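Subject: Sanity check before I submit

Could someone independently write out the structure tokens for this chain? I want to compare against mine line by line before I put it in a report. The sequence has 359 residues.
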Amino acid sequence: MIDEIPEKPIKGRGASNNPESRFDTVERARVSDGWDLEEESLTYLQTELIPEFPKTIISRNKSPDVPFEYSVNPYKGCEHGCVYCFARPSHGYLGLSPGLDFETKIFYKPEAAKLLKSELSRKNYECKPIALGINTDSYQPAEKNLKITRSLLEVLYEFNHPVSIVTKSSRILRDLDILAPMADKRLVNVLVSITTLDKQLARIMEPRASSPINRLSVIKAMSENRIPCGVLFSPIIPAINDSELETIFSAASENGATMAGYVLIRLPHELTKIFSKWLEDYFPDRRRKVLSLIKQCRDGQLYRSKFGERMTGAGPYSEMLRLRFLSSRKRHNFNQQDKETFLNVDLFSAKNQQLNLSL
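---
Independent answer below. Compare away.
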């Protein structure tokens, strides 16, 4: 009998292996050959940055579950390494694994700003707020030097185009010089994703994202610069971080957050195995309970893509989360500043008209 060798957690990475994507036809496993030799130490996994040159940059969305129609993603893959990331399976389309490949092979779009400027300049373009970095974080580590997100913001500011940003990185503070004047025109709002205030949990769950305290500092800085900012508790993981809902919203409110939202963990495709393996590595005593509670919210499955339920689930546990959220929202007066946070599309129309007249 040949025994399979278990994969071990890798420091600084969310996934511990490279499982096959759903498109692979061959399944691989590490097995023992019977020799009792010490395992060679794992080579440090370097992050590889790979340029990509798409023909367009704005994606259109028709899902009723998200509050935007347009989105722009300057990167594919994410070095933050969040083990729960719903975007992991997208690496399968590239012939790569949703596991370690997703967080070590990062595709970037060097011509993103050029493409955006071209698309915004089209006469038939209809201005609607653009969501920036929805699949993967626009302020992940690669952004420090590549500055693709900053170049996109420069174009959006030039065109007076509204944008909404979701991030869990304090790197966004670098761009306050653009975000603040955009906010004066109601052209931007920011949601900071916070999943836990426990730095030890954050370190194993999202190893290369900013620490929880730094994310709270982002909210505070945005508030001080009069940039509409909120907190996104995403994802909520039953029996792992669900007990923190009230404390996270309270801490965010104390630092100036005026908006709030939450998303229940989603486990599409290969993410089910990756997340289950993570539970085995770090929470073996809770694994069955966590997965059971998720199934209770997904009609007996670990994932269900039904519109209206993907983000929050259904059933008693999901209803409990909803009521807790509503209570916290009322307590902290979240989502009441509609006039201030509503993004302005009118300025773009004037800018576009001026551009057309000059042609």
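---
OP: Matches mine. For the report I'm noting this point. The chain has one domain: 48-334.
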